[in-house]
Amino acid sequence: MIFFREIEHLKKKLLTLSALVEEDLKDALKAIRTRDKRLAEEVISADNEIDSMEIEVEEDCLKILALHQPVARDLRFIIAVLKMNNDLERIGDLALNIAERALFLADHREIEIPEQISMLADKTGTMLKKCLDALVTLDEKLAAEVCALDDEVDAIHSEMYDFIKKEIIRTPAHIDGLLGLLSVSRYLERIADHATNIAEDVMYLVQGEIMRHRL
Prior knowledge:
Elements lengths: L1 H33 L2 H32 L3 H35 L8 H23 L2 H31 L4 H33 L8
Helix pairs in contact: 1-2, 1-3, 1-4, 2-3, 3-6, 4-5, 4-6, 5-6
């Protein structure tokens, strides 16, 4: 049946977009840690591909809604894909933002990358991987684990904010670089929020209930 073929094609596109976004985030974080300008530039260049695929997924969703008028579980799936698609595109944008900060920090090696950035990178990377695995397997338990990690990310970001304030007082000459690090922390915190959104949409897809604000 044409409808089910289009649904399967849509799933494949969303998973392809997911893989691109996940790889970009990994590369952006590696560029921060290793001060790799070439890798940061590759992440920035890849953003156009993510944007194009996000538009394709949205257009496919709208086409299916218009032509087939799905109901019940199929309708929930299309709605969930539209929301996840937007979150994935935003994560791609934030990975680009991190890569831009990596370019700046590559020229300011006197500014050390604090432990909080590594902790945030590990947590958000784990959250993104888990929410995408939950999407593939429709695993509610895995999705719930993602939501639980969001509070930990918020706490580390708060620590980072306090750390940067103290460092600015201690070394005011490094204020631009320190504010750049704070931006990276904020971008990672926002990525965690988007990963949480995707996890909640997986729960919505499985249960048929909107989980946002209830966890």
